[in-house]
Amino acid sequence: METFKAVAGVFADINACRDFFGWVTPCILAARHQLLGEGHSVVQHRILAEREQIRHLENNIWKLQTSMPKMLDLIERVEWQSHKKPAAELLPHIKDAVYDAEDFLDEFKYYALRLKLEESKNSSEEHMHAAFLEFFKSINDCDHFNKVKEIQGNLDHIHYQSKDLRLHKAPLRFDKSIRPETSAFTEVPQIFGREKELKHLVQKLGVHTSKRGRTDDEARATELRVLPIFGMGGVGKTTIAQQICDDAKVKEHFDCIIWTCVSDDFDAKRLIKEILEQMEQDTTSDNLNNLVRKLACSVESKKLLLVLDDMWGDTLRNGGAEWDKFCIPLRNALQGSMILVTTRFYEVANLVCAGMKSYELEGLQDVVFWEFFKSCAFGSNRTCNDLELERIGKDMLQKLKGSPLAAKTVGRLLQRDLSRAHWESILTSELWMLEQDVTDILPALRLSYMYLPPLLKRCFSICALYPKDHKFDKEFLVDIWIAQGYVELQDASLAFDELVKGSFFQISAKSNYQYVIHDLMHDTAQLVSKDECFIIKHASDLDKIPSTVRHLSVFTNENVGCSELKRLCNKKKLWSLVCNESYNSAKDFSPVIDCWFKGLPRVRVLSFRLSRVRQLPESMGNSKHLRYLCLLGSPTFRTLPSSVCHLHLLKTIEAKDCVFQTFPECFSDAISLQKIKSKGFSYDKDHCNALRIQWTSDQSVQMMENQIERLPHWNLQQLRIVRYGGESCPSWLCPNLLPRLRSLRFDECMNIQCISFFEPYICDSDQADNLHHLEVLEILKCDNINWQSFVALPTSLRTIELCDFGYSTDHFVSCFRDLIVLTELEIRSSKCLSSIPLQVWSSNFPSLEKLHIVRCESLISVGVSEACSSNRVGAFTSLVVLYIFGCTKLLSLDEFLTPDYLPAVKDIWVACCDELTSLPVDRLHSFTCLQMLVIKDCPKLNTQMVLTLPSSLKNFELESCPGIEYIDNRQLGSTPALEKLKLTHCSTLRSISGSIAVAQVESVYILDCPELTEAEYLTAFTRWYDSN
């Protein structure tokens, strides 16, 4: 059992699979023995056969798992070749076979979690036998013994086919046919609408800001200046770089203009050789050192413009080390030399810019873009007598988003046939569906996609599930990716940010917290996922759904009826179904929901509008792969179906406008649940098993208690409950059910009356020592807790923070015993705390380092009770920081502020204690470790004794304490440690004995101390002195 408990991710790797079967096989056989009986030879033979079956199943699953890395690598390689017909035809079949394998393994992950759950309940042997028999029956009924062989056979077959086509070793990079090499010579006879950008870039190169003339001794370039131009593929970066090189003033300004096409292989040696070749230098040597020296000599007398066209993310490898190596010899060029870089990637531009601001090149403006588009569609004369064609052309501009390459692509297609029918056909077609050459817009944009890591490719391509201009919340997309298994929870946010940096997502113009996909990038997503993602926009699209579809959405503006939606159940392999339709009749739509839950066994993401449905069907439990459920609409549900408890892989319930009055009785069995978002309530668990339960609107006490009682609480390490309005804690909030809990926090739980976690729990003596692991306790603004019956806190606590934490607090703090590892204690805003029992605390807090007592308005004393005054009490041997603030009724600290209690204290703050009359100021010099002493706003402090400063003191502040007349600093000695002295608003302060020592203090500030007799001596070395 313990071996299985230790497996963190079931079926996440091969070892986890072995562990699972090593645990489950003998348990199944034992259960089968009990069911069939023992001793009969037929039964023995049958059980031996079943043992062999399970062994074969384990071995076949092992084969399947070990095949997956090579199959995922194959997908990656074939995608790079998908511009070729054989690869393009084979790719969807490879993906389909791999996804079938992922489904199969996912099903076993479900079974493993189910058994893990049953085991965790400490169920009886009979109950566990039933669970194992159910598992065995499931794999038998589903014929998993043969299914795994079929899936493995498909993978092997498809891999053999790839071998035959030599795709299994295809390079992970594009070939020259897709990305032809560029040069400084432009093929574009006329540039449209870039005059402003061209002028600006030429100026940034320094062409119009310096004189051509120079001396032979002109300085070398102390800093290599680099101007990066970045922007989306096809926007015209190369073209404008070519125009710059062809500019007469640029040619005159630079001695030498060199152009090299970098592409996806940033190799310093190769690039240096290419530059030397263009400078007509010998490049026969392959020694990098010789090449670097030769280039440094070649450029030392030249003002150089080097153009590095089409730089890719390869430049970033090893933190840009290859880039740094490349730049070394170029720094020998004359001052004013420049490097001009074009790239699609902001991160590349940011790496190379060397202090210059990168320049983002955007699409052409509408007026100019129309002129350019006409030249592409109608030829050089750009005229057309057909007004209808012009109308269609202008409508088409919206699709192209100012991209010159997109205009060329579509213009070429339009130019083939100037009939209205042909142009209408192009207009109504998606760009990704149009025939394109390898150098056209979408193949060009597809290259950006190809350079993404495999998981980010899947994250981006699934966005084709949504129509153009759809606005995404970051949290929403992240949840979808997690549900599909593309990324882990802890990596999801970073994955999103990477896609934003790569311009795959853009911040919406209408909302700063939402994102959209540029239309051309959306076309790219549709292109790369055309066999996996499909959007139903018209009823007729139902017949066009690809057989390999995994992600399906319905956005038809109510053009599809409920009966037609049931047809989607034929797509048994669906992983995602998003239905944006809304219907007036719950009676019509309820059967559709039921059909989906019954007929889509592999669905992982399901989102639909509720259309007045008020109860979800029990068939929901059939969707055992389901991770993400989104319910759109604002109904009030009494509860979810009880079968939701069988959804052990469910991670997210997104129902922000719905109300759940309670949850099913066994809802805690949804052990993978990470998030519930509903109206007025949220449940949020992170990858560290830190759970936050929060209410954001008023609900009835009973409803809140019903909600929290049935929430999943599997494996919690941190728990935070916010604005809970119930009077009692859930029954699961106890140490034996939360054995790993390290942190517990209550925020603004105004009605809660007790915290059951600290109530006595009866257990075996062997368990008692390991019952509590709680290290952090925070109770904030829970003013109705009654601590009268409180017994003790867990001895494992390291940090306690209490703020407005209820009543009977004197009894509560008197029970702080055996807290031997407690290091921080903060008590704030307690209205009832009247005394702090030093005899208890000092003997039970040997590790306490920080003590804060703040705004305890009823606190009168901090001392030893009379009953204990004759007994010896301990000391706060580790306390270094003491902070007492705003305790307006506190009278004295004489008992507490003694070296006996505080032998190690370094910082003492006492402030805003209105009734404080007594401090042991004459004993302060005995605090040998004290470094900071602050006494502020204690107006009744009245002492005739001299305040003596210890020799260790570094910072002393006395403010608004009229009762102190004398300060003795002679203990400081001739070389004081004191660095800062601040005395303000001390109307009766008469003397600082030993003012000569004060002269050596770095910072002295004295304000409004009119009786200070040594003032005339202090002014010579006081940074600020004012007696008024």
Question: Would you give an account of this structure?
Answer:
Residues 48-122 form the Disease resistance N-terminal domain. This is NB-ARC domain-containing protein. The protein folds into 6 domains: 8-169, no CATH class; 195-206 and 220-360, P-loop containing nucleotide triphosphate hydrolases (Rossmann fold, 3-Layer(aba) Sandwich), CATH 3.40.50; 364-450; 452-516; 531-679, Ribonuclease Inhibitor (Leucine-rich repeat, LRR (right-handed beta-alpha superhelix)); 921-1027. It is 35% helix and 15% strand. The chain has 30 helices and 37 strands. With 1028 residues, it is α/β, with parallel strands linked by helices.
Features of this protein?
1028 residues; alpha/beta; Rossmann fold; 6 domains; globular; ATP binding
How many DSSP-defined strands?
Answer: 37
- Summed up, the domain count is 6
Average pLDDT, rounded to a whole number, is: 85
Intertermini distance? 78 Å
Tell me about the largest β-sheet. Answer: 22 strands, mixed
Low-confidence blocks of residues = 1-11, 212-218, 1019-1023
Structural class: alpha/beta
- What portion of the residues fall into strands of 2 or more residues? 15-25%
Secondary structure: helix percent:
25-40%
Shape: globular
Give the count of helical stretches. Answer: 30
What is Rg? Answer: 38 Å
Quick structural gist:
This protein is α/β, with parallel strands linked by helices and 1028 residues long. It is built from 30 helices and 37 strands. It folds into six domains: 162 residues, no CATH class; 153 residues, Rossmann fold; 87 residues; 65 residues; 149 residues, Leucine-rich repeat, LRR (right-handed beta-alpha superhelix); 107 residues.
